[in-house]
Each structure stands twice: as C-alpha cells, then as structure tokens.
Automatic annotation (TrEMBL):
Keyword annotations from UniProtKB, A to Z: Phosphoprotein
Any Pfam family matching the protein: PAS_3
Database matches in Gene3D superfamilies: 3.40.50.2300, PAS domain
Record-linked SMART domains: REC (SM00448)
Keyword Phosphoprotein included in the entry's annotation: yes
Domain Response regulatory: 11-131
Protein name: Response regulator
Cross-referenced CDD domains: REC (cd00156)
C-alpha cells in the first residue's frame, strides 16, 4: 500500500466477471481525484495472481464469480495481505451474513456507485493511505485516531462526500451524519464567530490554487468548544470546468477547551 504521507493517487484492483458492470465501476472510480488507476480482473484467482505480481492500495470484489467467491477471495487475501483494504460490491448483500465479513455495498439504486466510492475512500484513509496532495503543503494527516480526514464538494455549505472515523474521537459525531447531510461542518461544528473568516480564507486560498491552513474554534457533540487546526487543498474531479470541484484535508485538536 502507498505509505502514509505519500502523494500518489491510489491503485485499485477490481475483481468482477461482468464486463459491462466492470466498465461502469471503472469509469466511476477513475473520475475520482484519489484514484490513479483501476485494474480489472475477471475472477478471484486472477486477483490473487495480480496481487502476487505487484502492489495495490485496495481491492474491490464481486461476491459471486466463477471459481472462488468474493468471500473466499477475502479469506485468501487476509492470509497474504492482512492490511489491504477490501470491499465487496454485490447485488445480494444479505447473502453476506458473517460477522467478520468485509464492508459490503449493494449494486443498483440511485447512489450505489457514490456510496461505493465514498466507502472505499474512507476505508483506504482509515488504513493509512494518503490522498494525493500538491506541494508545497502536504494535506495527508498523521496516522492518529483523532485526525479527522474529510472530502467535500466545493459548493454552498461544503457538502461532505467522505468523513473519516477520526471525527468520532475528535468531535463525538458519526461520519455518516455528515455524509448523509444531517449535519454540516460549517454550520454545526465551526464556532459562529469563526464561520465567515474561515470560509473567506479557504476560498481565497482555493481561488489562488494554494493549500490552506488555520486554527479556529469547533463545537463538539457534547457542547464543549475546542480549538482545532485544519489543513486542506482543492482537488479537481467530475465535470467541473471552473476550478477545483472538491476540497480534501484534515482537522486536528490543538488541546485545551475554550
């Protein structure tokens, strides 16, 4: 896997026997700024052979394929690559009943690919893979439990695409609350007196093509106010023709309540 702090996008290995679906998933993943390439193989045995030949940052697998199933592939991969992020993408998620099964996402539905890419990204970040970052100014967070990774759209309200598990330690919220739009970081976390100037500072840096960093006050789920330090930068993606489409970065505590 790409080491923490690396700036290269990630390489995805995709095991899928359906040619049409594999092409759709590949197109969706390759639109993401954090993905360097997607290598598709038709079955589990080919996936194992690919892992033997060269390293990958994560593995995405169908459940039902000729030969070994996705779960059997998972068992084999755990023996040889125990830290490799592994995700199942299947039309039959209820067939995955084991308590030790990998994260599983359902094919079909309006946001199936969106849920898959967000989940895969979050899993890679939690495993220690750093998203691509420009220089100067590395925006990959240190591997610590209270480091909150995030990826949001550069749009009004900064809608969250992915929020890392560190938000629970840092602020007491679940990542899904932001990803579902139930909470917004700017309105529900940033202190009211710090909202406007942090927004303006971020926009100024993004418009100039520069990374940003600043300290401000943040409100935890329990009501406590703490000081935090944030670093991030804009990244391209999707069909945005006017500047960066996304913002990626991390937030760390500075220590001490306000």
């Amino acid at each position: 896997m790409t080491s923490p702090g690396a700036t290269e996008p990630l390489r995805v290995l995709h095991a899928e026997d359906d040619d049409a679906l594999a092409e759709v998933v590949t197109l969706a993943l390759e639109r993401e700024a954090w993905v360097d390439s997607v290598v598709r193989v038709p079955d589990a045995e080919a996936a194992l052979a690919a892992l033997d030949r060269e390293p990958y940052d994560c593995l995405l697998s169908d459940l039902e394929m000729p030969g070994l199933s996705g779960l059997e592939l998972y068992e084999r991969v755990r023996e040889t690559h125990p830290s490799l992020p592994f995700v199942l993408f299947t039309g039959r998620p209820r067939a995955v009943r084991r308590g030790d099964a990998p994260p599983t996402y359902e094919k079909g539905g309006a946001d199936a690919l969106g849920s898959l890419t967000r989940g895969l990204y979050r899993l890679c970040v939690a495993a220690g893979a750093a998203v691509a970052a420009p220089t100067p100014g590395d925006t990959s967070a240190p591997a610590r439990p209270d480091a909150m990774f995030y990826r949001c759209r550069r749009a009004p309200g900064w809608p969250a695409e992915v929020v890392g598990p560190g938000v629970t330690v840092l602020l007491g919220y679940e990542p899904e609350a932001f990803e579902r739009g139930e909470l917004t970081y700017a309105e529900d976390v940033v202190h009211p007196e710090d909202r406007q100037w942090t927004h303006d500072a971020m926009e100024a840096s993004l418009s100039a093509g520069d990374p940003f960093e600043f300290t401000y006050r943040a409100r935890r789920a329990d009501g406590d106010v703490i000081r935090v330090w944030e670093r991030g930068r804009g990244v391209p993606g999707g069909d945005a023709a006017d500047g960066d489409a996304f913002v990626e970065g991390f937030v760390l505590p500075l220590g001490g309540d306000e």
